[in-house]
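// run 5 | inverse folding | seed 20
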């Protein structure tokens, strides 16, 4: 098989560079052809990865967090090139959701297996962009944005720290109203969280929608209505435990398309990366992507 492996510069201190370099060595030792892509920025990585995908490489493996996985998704959706995930980021939620081990040896073993399966992707038609895991459009977007500014040493805990900080600010913010159109039906709601998800995990291991299936041809629209700070803290605990859907303020609706309109100061995030301000549309792209992942049990 022909692989391309994208990772950071080896002169850097990040774990992505070491994991990517290890993948190159292991794949070559196994007799595979490998193009190694060392990049110092996401823009540089994207340009190089776009070239190898256009050349028809079998697998584009990326070492890093959900942001680089989202980049690879955007490039590989609708093509025959599969995305390989080498988790070395803050949240690693897409790897977690797909059953890819978060340790280096486990992740490399999955990549070397070459087993690919088809999953859905989230398509943002306003931007003609694809995302793999989730799109956040309310307080969840503010949390994702704050998490990107926290020290990397916090790891997945940065999302919890960011959530606590944003919850503490709730008494000083007006309750925002969102206009949500899901599969043609529109309603206006005062919401704390508006998330469109394709995966069970987001936010560094939080299980907001634990029953989400990335291969069912549907997305899940998760809306959490306005609650006070104390109740929001309880909900955060429930989300981590995977039981938030039982709360009366939480609705989870399977959808094929969603348009979210709301406060213009909300910067929508996709897989932890800033995308665009509201309004924004999201549609399911069924079976649009091949990913190298363990087979379903």
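// decoded
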């Amino acid at each position: 098989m022909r692989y391309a492996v994208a990772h950071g510069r080896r002169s850097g201190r990040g774990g992505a560079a070491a994991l990517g370099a290890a993948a190159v060595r292991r794949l070559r030792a196994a007799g595979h052809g490998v193009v190694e892509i060392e990049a110092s920025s996401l823009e540089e990585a994207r340009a190089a990865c776009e070239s190898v995908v256009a050349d028809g490489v079998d697998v584009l493996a990326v070492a890093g967090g959900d942001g680089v996985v989202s980049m690879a998704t955007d490039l590989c959706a609708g093509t025959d090139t599969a995305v390989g995930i080498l988790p070395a980021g803050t949240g690693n939620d897409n790897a977690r959701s797909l059953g890819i081990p978060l340790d280096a040896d486990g992740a490399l073993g999955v990549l070397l297996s070459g087993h690919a399966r088809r999953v859905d992707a989230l398509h943002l038609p306003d931007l003609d962009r694809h995302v793999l895991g989730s799109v956040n459009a309310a307080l969840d977007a503010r949390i994702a944005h704050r998490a990107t500014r926290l020290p990397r040493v916090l790891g997945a805990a940065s999302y919890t720290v960011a959530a606590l900080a944003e919850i503490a600010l709730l008494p000083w913010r007006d309750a925002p109203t969102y206009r949500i159109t899901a599969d043609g039906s529109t309603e206006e709601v005062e919401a704390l969280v508006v998330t469109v998800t394709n995966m069970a995990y987001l936010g560094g291991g939080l299980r907001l929608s634990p029953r989400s299936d990335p291969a069912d041809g549907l997305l899940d629209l998760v809306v959490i209505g306005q609650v006070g700070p104390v109740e929001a803290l309880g909900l955060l605990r429930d989300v981590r435990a995977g039981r938030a859907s039982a709360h009366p303020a939480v609705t989870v609706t399977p959808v094929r398309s969603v348009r979210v309109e709301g406060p213009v100061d909300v910067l929508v995030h996709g897989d932890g990366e800033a995308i665009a301000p509201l309004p924004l549309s999201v549609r399911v792209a069924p079976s649009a992507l091949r990913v190298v992942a363990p087979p379903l049990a």
